Amino acid sequence: MMLQDGSTQVLCLTANSGVPLFTRGASKQLPFSVIGSLNGVHMFGDGQGVVLSSCQTDCGGRVVWRVFHDSVMLIAVNGGHGSTGVIQGHVKGEELFLERLLENIWNCMVLVLGRDELTNMRNVERLKKDLRSCFGLIDQLLEDRHQGIMGNLTHCADCLLPPNPALVQEAVNGFTQSVDSEFGCLVVHGRVAAATENWWRLAPQEVILLSALMRMLSSSGSASCDYPVFLPQGSPTVAHRLLRFQLLPGADVCVLCGPTPSLQKAQSDLVRQFWSPLVETLRDCLAVGERCLPGTVSLRVPDVLALLVLNREARRSVSCVRPSADDSPTLPSKARCWELLRLFYIFAATRYFSQEEAPVPGALAEEKAHSRSSASGDFVAGFPHQPLQCYLVTEECKCYGLQTQQHQLFLLTPLSVPTFALRNVATQTLLAVTADTGF
Amino acid sequence: MAQDLPPESIIIADWHRCAESKDFFNRILHKKKRKQFGLLESPMMAPHVAVETVQYKVFLSGKSGVGKTSLAARLAGLSSPNMHYETTGIETIVLYWPVKLRENGRVLFFRLQLWDCGENALRRFDHFLPSCKEQVDAVLFLFSFTDRTSFDDLPNQITRWSGPSNRIVKMVVGTKFDLFMHSDVTQREVRQFQDTQGLPVLRTGGEVSDGLGDVAPFLNCLAERLWNQDCMAATLPSGPTHYREGALI
């Protein structure tokens, strides 16, 4: 493979003529001839009535193809991992990651440009130019995996549980109503701290994408934005306005609204009115920080290296790594913990735990269902029942997965925790996270 | 008219270098870098030092890619984006800048909100321009020294803003001045333009060297013109109307 270890590159071409539209990710672009071949081999299959969806190279690299609405082809190329381990060896998982990445990127193109512009391709040169406005968001998606954001993978929105949820919720509801909208959301440290009921009724992919957009806008340091967005599922052809206000650095509120009020008006009349009384509450939310859980949640700290809890119904998640202050050098670094958590999620989710796929656009459903069954297939297919718990011991950490009707927990512990105690730690951790917070 | 204003006649230039200004400038700094203020925040002075804050809205106009977003980031002391992404909507940046008036030695905090909107977005969605024009106090017309067409486009940009309401400060900013090797616009042309249009032309570009000194001349010049406009409008030299929104925060 010509890519660096672990790096991912995404290519976008027109589906029928194979004209390259853009390339993102990885510092070094693949040579044009390789891009041409990748397109060619897919086209060859197409001519034979075969859909080529993915393939793997000798050194663990992987390529995934996807055509959207017969107009745009996205190809993800992953350089593969240099090291091999129990989890990394599980290449099928990487496929899930790349598939979701392509889906997210397509949705992101729709979000910025609208579906019509992508499907009625009249002038390729103009489209190429217009697509540049998606790059900020696409790059954000490609980088998120390094910043402890799991939503792009799990399709459950990354949340932060505020210490005083009722107050924050009330303010979000009030503020949203005041701009004649039903869709409002407070984002703290790039994670959803509170949102209106209807915000959660948006398609999970949309919630994820809007969170990514908020992270991008917030990281630029701007104070407020008026941003046109098309909702990939809900409103792919008519743009809404996303108004975003930075209340405090790290705490942003946003609403989806129609033509009124103007940014100027909302900002000068409404922001202070609703949020000034909550400055201290917002500071408390910011203080929760990377832990994402309020101080009232007590974890068995030395036993927890990293955790990810999904609420399966609500499509929300909380995650954190290394909640303890213990800086023991024998433990994997924070960045490595995020990586391991991601890999364990992929491992457990594709192998043992069922996937609740959110509905995919009609034309893709069949193709999707096919690829899904082959990914999770081999193991689960052989049994009539659903696994509820699983564990894995690696050279770096121990992992435990657990699912209930409502939740899924993915837990990493240090090697020092005895294997027979894992189930206990996991059950207690899930209880601690969900019991008081109502998550 | 704005061009009649002799430079540095209203506010004290280089005030950021004086020892007495330290206390004020420290309020907009954090660990030697410019502090970022959310919409609910403002610089906090000790209770006995009452400093008034005046608010202004500044719109950045210019062709796609001339560096509107990057100028806004530079003035606010944010790290400017290292890659060019098109701004696909309106993005605003808030910055605070303390200024000392020459006349009576009063200190004011200028709260400037810079409005930046991508040119393509302006064209695709027609609600953006009215929103940017709403209660605007100043417009900066940007051109890039490395892009001839952006310079030639200036008169076009300027006529868009010549309306009945003339209470808008107008200034021209040439960006990427450091890339003189690739300069497409000569100094003589800039001077000529300055004379015919009667608008001041400022230049920016290059590495951000020392934090405050880098942006001080620019911000002082802008603040001076905004303040002057208010004074003229109020006819009473002591009471500019801008306090309607300015107020004390």
Largest sheet of chain B: 6 strands, mixed
Strand content of chain A: 15-25%
What does the average pLDDT of chain B come to? Answer: 83
Average pLDDT of chain A, rounded to a whole number, is: 86
Total domain modules of chain B: 1
Q: Please give the order of strands in the largest beta sheet of chain A.
A: 6-13-12-16-15-14
Strand content of chain B: 15-25%
What is the second-level CATH architecture of chain B? Answer: 3-Layer(aba) Sandwich
User: Main sheet of chain A?
Assistant: 6 strands, mixed
* CATH homologous superfamily caption of chain B: P-loop containing nucleotide triphosphate hydrolases
Describe it for me?
The complex is a heterodimer of chains A (439) and B (249). With 439 residues, chain A is α+β, with helices and mostly antiparallel strands. Chain A is 39% helix and 23% strand. Chain A contains 13 helices and 16 strands. Chain A has a 6-stranded mixed β-sheet with strand order 6-13-12-16-15-14, with helices on both faces. In chain A, a hairpin with a 5-residue loop joins strand 1 (8-14) and strand 2. The longest helix of chain A is centred in the first third of the chain and has 23 residues, at 91-113. Chain A starts with 7 loop residues before the first strand and ends with a helix. By secondary structure, chain B is an alpha/beta fold. Chain B has a single domain, classed as P-loop containing nucleotide triphosphate hydrolases (Rossmann fold), CATH 3.40.50.300. Chain B contains 9 helices and 8 strands. Chain B has helices spanning 22-26, 68-76, 119-124, 128-133, 148-152, 154-159, 187-197, 211-234, 243-246, and strands at residues 29-30, 33-34, 52-61, 90-100, 107-117, 138-144, 169-175, 201-203. Chain B starts with 21 loop residues before the first helix and ends with a helix. Mean pLDDT of chain B is 83; it is low at 236-249. Classes of the chains: A alpha+beta (439), B alpha/beta (249). Chains A and B meet through helix 5, strand 9, strand 10 and helix 9 of A and helix 2, strand 4, helix 3 and helix 4 of B. Strand 9 of chain A pairs antiparallel with strand 4 of chain B, so a sheet runs across the interface.
